[in-house]
Write the structure tokens for this entry.
Amino acid sequence: MRIRIIDAFTDRPFAGNPAGVCLLDRSTWPDEAWMQQVAAELNLSDTAFAHRLGGDADWALRWFTPTVEVKLCGHATLATAHALSADLGTPRTLRFDTRSGVLTARTATNGLITLDFPAAPPIEAPAPDGFVEAFGVAPAVTYRADQLGDLLAVLPDEASVRALQPDFRALANLRTSTGLRGFIGTGPAAAGASYDFVSRFFAPADGIPEDPVTGGAHTVLAPYWSRRLGRDDLTGLQVSARTGVVRTGLRGDRVELTGRAVTMLDGTLMHRPW
């Protein structure tokens, strides 16, 4: 069975966020435990599995971290669209049936891919007990995006976001008391930058201490920064060690996420569950 590793939200190798992509050669899901084992074997932040459909969507799509299945994943969706565009050609619109509803991806001949995701506008809320100690710094303000189970922590500047050194074990322990699975640190871009805001994303309870580039987090970041900056179309830079660029477009209750991808590995998965 064919399996690929694709760097998403980047136009160069060894950057962005690597995702596993497994396009299944059957029209039903294999055993869930097998998909979880494949994701654990690859040990990437997310691995996508897809199979063909008919009806309202072209493909069924699921995402697994090394430890759990997740409800929404942007970079692995972009990576899947990149794989399909390589196989099927561009331009085209791909429709994915997922746990977050039907999501679309538009591929272009210039390599750009635009995802259409539901927006997750954050609501201002106090930082939960223990968060400041776990995060390592007191944010100016915090917001909850309960649609995804994420906390958005706003910092004063880009340097503060880059300097974050959270206690991953302490962040993971907050899952029990708060129900939060992910923590987004964000701040305005430095003066003269070619992007509008920066971010980092941590989800240690889901087996992802720091995610290199997080499409789902930008469904929270886009409504926040568009409201703050007064523009619907923005560019975010996720300042992890690998870095990645996500162009965001707020469209009512939807968010467009645009980026590129690079195939890094194209191989054969030798163990099949059927």
